[in-house]
Amino acid sequence: MRVLGVDPGLTRCGVGVVEGAPGRPLRLVAVDVIRTSSQLELGERLLAIESVLEKWIVEHAPDSVAVERVFSQHNVRTVMGTAQASGIAALVAARRGLPVATHTPSEVKAAVSGNGRADKEQVAFMVMRLLRLAGKPTPADASDALALAICQVWRGGAASRLAAAAAKNGARR
Amino acid sequence: MRVLGVDPGLTRCGVGVVEGAPGRPLRLVAVDVIRTSSQLELGERLLAIESVLEKWIVEHAPDSVAVERVFSQHNVRTVMGTAQASGIAALVAARRGLPVATHTPSEVKAAVSGNGRADKEQVAFMVMRLLRLAGKPTPADASDALALAICQVWRGGAASRLAAAAAKNGARR
Fold first, then answer.
1. Residues contributing to the annotated binding site of B for Mg(2+)
2. Architecture of the domain spanning B2-146
3. Phi-psi region of A85 (alpha: psi -120 to 50; beta: other; left: phi over 0)
4. Domain map of chain A by residue range?
5. B104 half-sphere exposure, CB direction, 13 A CA radius
6. Tell me: domain A2-172, CATH 3.40.50.261, correct?
7. Is the model's pLDDT at A86 over the cut of 60?
8. Binding-site residues of B, please?
9. What is the pLDDT of residues B60-117, one digit of tens each?
10. Looking at this predicted complex, what is its ipTM?
11. B29 near B18, Cβ under 8 Å?
12. Contact: B47, A95; criterion CB under 8 Å
């Protein structure tokens, strides 16, 4: 299973592709951060994000897209931009017929570190370990995008197995 | 000047096109509400909104797009969807090279009724009056989209005149 993780944001939008399956080693396919200038109009920033996400989906052919679920934060202006960037990720995925999964930050932290309250450092450390990288991915947005993708590989896999088991069970009745 | 007003929302997204200029009568070109089912995935809903907005821009050829500026509200889930739908409007406008103006709800209310705290009824009444309609546009999302477009025709016009005057003044120096 190949997952494109997106840590949404207007100024920095983390993107990371991870390949793997539950119980098997994970592999880093690609990671980057899409940056857009705050000098640009909102629409231009969203267009730039859309264009890079389209390119990544074509180039890396993920099976699904995982996006961080946005919550209200202290800074209302930031959360609006985050919501808008996450909407673009959902739009691009839907256009390509890809399923989109959303995970909360604590689900992602728990998935990669076993602790839903892990800090950024710990998440970056575990991403490095799990993907057997030489160093921690930076900036945090890149690391978070990879953690999201890992979370989806594992949870998505578990969800698929549960669905398959339920289907099998249903068929037996 | 022809303006497409968008009152963003996932469940109901108001769209209205108004033609006019400051000091001249306004004309209703078109109004509707884009509805998407909450049963659909977020990406599918955003795709549907994108598709209708694209069609409206092609069909009605507005000079600019006016979108309600989203603020934090009580219901975090609603505000996320609103922000995402407004992002799609900004994206589609930018793709077509159209300027996007954002106005706060109180700016819009003040523009059409003289009162920044006017209620929905009063806004709908003034939209009906200003566009010389036989009845109030319904639902409120349709009325709000038209009010946004009217606000932009007037404020955008004033801004253009100020910019033109400033340019003229600058040229004289």
1. 7, 68, 141
2. 2-Layer Sandwich (3.30)
3. alpha
4. 2-172
5. 8
6. no
7. yes
8. 7, 68, 141
9. 999 999 999 877 655 666 788 999 999 999 999 999 999 999 999 999 999 999 999 9
10. 0.83
11. yes
12. yes
